[in-house]
Fold each of these.
Amino acid sequence: MRQAGRYLPAYRAVKQRVSFLELARSPDLACEVTLQPIDEFGFDAAILFSDILITLPGMGIEVEFPETGPKIGTPVRTAAEIAALAVPDPTTAVPFVMDTIRLLKAALASRGGVPLIGFAGAPLTMMTYAVEGGGSKEYAHTKSLLFAAPEEAHALLDKLARTCGAYLVAQIEAGADCVMLFDSWGGIVSPGDFREYPLRYAKRVIEHVRAARPGVPIIYFVNGCAPYLDDYASSGADVLGVDWRVGIDEVRRRVGDGVALQGNLDPGALFAPPAEIRARVADILGRAGDRGHIFNLGHGVMKETDPEHVRAMVTAVRELSAK
Amino acid sequence: MRQAGRYLPAYRAVKQRVSFLELARSPDLACEVTLQPIDEFGFDAAILFSDILITLPGMGIEVEFPETGPKIGTPVRTAAEIAALAVPDPTTAVPFVMDTIRLLKAALASRGGVPLIGFAGAPLTMMTYAVEGGGSKEYAHTKSLLFAAPEEAHALLDKLARTCGAYLVAQIEAGADCVMLFDSWGGIVSPGDFREYPLRYAKRVIEHVRAARPGVPIIYFVNGCAPYLDDYASSGADVLGVDWRVGIDEVRRRVGDGVALQGNLDPGALFAPPAEIRARVADILGRAGDRGHIFNLGHGVMKETDPEHVRAMVTAVRELSAK
């Protein structure tokens, strides 16, 4: 997560010349920064450079990306505002994403066919930004909508799920080998509300993608998944993302053997010396065992991270998992 | 949590005249706002009005409290900065807190002897503010200190734990009937790091208070406790706080019967209509069962909350737990 990003000097060099939105909307540049970490570290898969909120403007929700985090022009909070939202055709709303994917597929083919992961924000997560107007600490507006006006909340989540489903299918049509659904804020509710809101609409997206493009692996990631382990596997995804605040062995015990896991090193652990990084990689590989495990950070690389420590992690994963 | 606060018109009326720090440092006013929710809703216990960072200036860390959240003058990040910090005597560093407690005890005696809960920020939580300089999303500076300079991190946590222990004992000497240790950001680390950092230093505080004033109930609250349930009970506290993102029945299964639980309604659920609030209260009472349960929100009351919904919650708890 955040393979491409501000921790890389090559990324910062591109970012000095253009805004985040210009970068995300320019296939040449988005392709370039997606490839930077692949060329630098030789990761086993590339993940599209984009943003989880990139489809919001096509729905009728303006969004900007200053350094302090995304900002929504007019937050969506009323039944009328929700009714006015569109479910856009991604090929016309965000054609640059599909162009980026096509460029990437060609570029990755010449790099030994490294697979490409496409992604989207999950419905509840996108809802929090649309409703709060940006990031939030307590999600008061979101929870007010969920609990005081559940019909409107469901109407909004339904539109977000349809947007998200169509968007992921379009990414697969353009060449994505796998898709990942990010529920970065799926973890802000009680277990009962997790089933009612984030999980329900993530399932709809996953079912839609599965029906439209069977066989394409789907990853579902809930940041802060520990409280929901009894329900997590029912998402229908092939792979469950695991953040760093839970033991991946506990996750395996609770979700069973029918699903692969992706995770779960604390991104902050990359501040540790390489020997300690290696010890932590070994610990996670040991806990994950020998059933379907994709080593990954539990969340995005922090901008303060030393790229040499990322390299130390990759080396440790390769050497230790070869044993 | 946040019984006294911006959701109450009476609190906002006081707050219009003074800054947060003036309020917290004025025994008369702090006593007044502590009593407001007791007189309004008849809670079973009062909790001191103050802030978890109130002892930082006595350690040598300046802190301000604008509406956007606490701001530290100069963040503490180096060995030299940590070495320069004091472990203050709370009776001279924050005498106004003990004065507030004495006023409160007299005022609560005339209200049928409602018990008073004192509190402090737990060491890891205070460390995050001291090191980041305020609130944070990723805690990069904190994790850099924890993982790149663990000796310095331990030195800082040791000073924070000693400050916190002495402060809670002073509150008990002044009249607090019970003390609560808030680890609001204890939940930002992996289970192994939870044992190594937040839990280890919370235990030290709890042991210190226990030894100095045996028999006084101690509550330990980790916000986002779900990943740490196997270790949570080893804190030594009499009561474990439970946030809303986990089933309180699961917590009971995992921590055993030797400890009471406090929680765990989503503060956002107070946006729901009173009938739904009642249903959620009933659900939590049912899950908590008949062993040591203090009904509470899983975190603080949000400022957007309708006080009548707080009243509906209290009524539901009283009526349903009487059955």
Amino acid sequence: MYTAGDLRRRRAAVRAALPGRQPHAVPGEARAFASANIALVKYWGKRDEALHLPRTGSLSVSLGPWGSEATLALTRKAAEVWLDGEKLAPGSSFAARALAYLELFRPESGENFVLKTRNTLPTAAGFASSASGFAAIAKALDALFGWDLPERNLSVLARLGSGSAARSLRDGFVEWKCGRKADGSDSYAVALPVAWKTLRIGAVVVERARKPLSSGEAMRRCIATSPFMAAWDKTVRGDLRAAKEAVAKRDLRALGEVAEGNALAMHAVMLAARESVFYPTGASLAALAKVRQLRAEGVPVYATMDAGPNVKLLFEAKSESPVRRAFPDAVVLCPFADKGSRR
Amino acid sequence: MYTAGDLRRRRAAVRAALPGRQPHAVPGEARAFASANIALVKYWGKRDEALHLPRTGSLSVSLGPWGSEATLALTRKAAEVWLDGEKLAPGSSFAARALAYLELFRPESGENFVLKTRNTLPTAAGFASSASGFAAIAKALDALFGWDLPERNLSVLARLGSGSAARSLRDGFVEWKCGRKADGSDSYAVALPVAWKTLRIGAVVVERARKPLSSGEAMRRCIATSPFMAAWDKTVRGDLRAAKEAVAKRDLRALGEVAEGNALAMHAVMLAARESVFYPTGASLAALAKVRQLRAEGVPVYATMDAGPNVKLLFEAKSESPVRRAFPDAVVLCPFADKGSRR
């Protein structure tokens, strides 16, 4: 997974994020929750593979109660990883990734971790769970070892598990700062002070099969071969400024146009890679056409897509009826709905 | 269609391409044929709208006997435009475009043109006929008025009808030079001295309906809004060099990879425009996936797509059986098949 040199740099990044603290043998268990997030200005392309450092900043909105819960405890026996109530084989993809991450945090006394994760994401909604999963693990580590870390340090630790997990430490709109430092200590996420209770996210699932190429692989291919990568980085910087302005004004049209344009530009970067990578399917294109049709009929709704074929919709409460009519199978989420009670 | 200033510049470009010559009243009629062409390195984006001057060079292969025939005569009565045996209403799209073009060549004595065009393109193959159509008209004008123009002047005249018509004056591989001059006199096409008898073009029609947005409109939107337009121009210049090298070596793999990458990059430029333009449909994506699958099975076949959903295949005679099995409805063309007898 990582070279020896990469591992040294990852360990150094962890130490730097744990000032005056370290893992140690503790009894009991700790539990933490982190929201999933959907990027409105995308993270696409790493400047450092080992430290998951991005080439640009990005902006997401958290999905409130939809996310992942992680429970951590130490054991003298073999490590265990559980997902949604089932114990995973150590070689399974998620278990291997989680254990490689937890290895960075094993106490010197040699205990192993028992990790139990559970996703509260509606499984039908097709959201990625690695961001919320690794953010929840980072929070559970903090609680288990009693570190009481500042949020930005937690964001750095989550990032070392999965890049976009950096954005899953906070509710609401979150900006992941690109940072400039080689050790990544300035590449963390911060919340934007905006609540937008009428905002809705619709999840349109067009395909449940696993994607044929991981997003990490696709990013690497784009960096190596896409002629539009440099222009993409520049586009993201402009989109990030525009999206933050739109969020501050709660301007759905401005935010939607940037988010949709940014997502499609990301897919364009992939389409232009050699050999081409293209996640949207015919059903994705049909959903995008329906979104344009709704707009032509005066319904302000916009689309975004991650590195996969599923389509996410961005709209406001007042448009919920026509959106639900056009997309009867969509799962509609309210990112800020129970904000008051959750804070 | 054009402003008064545009028209003056178009007339000046015509005069410059007709040294010592001009239209004049002549009896009889003249007939000419021009092949359609398919671009392997695309023309996408004009640097001059009125003169149809491209931002970059491009490279195409002509389709031999598949193209358009134009018959021209002068009349003292009203102008007429016929297409495939039917007289068109003067306001119809092709008639209006053809008449606006022919207006540049009306004799001072005031005669009108009777234009009869006929396409020998297999209508099921979904090829654009405007390139071959305007190239045939330019050749018919040359024959009617007895100008005996050099080929590059004819290429310039054809270009003033439809940009890619500049490439339809010659058989085989043709490079349309970008040129640098403001009047476009150095933006014409030249043939590459390569015959490649085993080359095959397969036409996979996935959609017969007219496209919702013309390629001219789509080009304009890309220039105005696509963040990848500048990178596209640079990509084309590299692709053009690589494609010419591949053609000189008759290296299908090298040519196919460049052609496919170039076509998908063009569609990526459109996908990233704001608002996005995307011609491929689910059926186009399925055809592209089948092409990749064939390659994975060891069949060297590559795809290209113009500003529409139909897919064209590039392969050699030895792969014709597996390609026909995978695409039973494809129309297979042999660009160089009857080269010897046609020259």
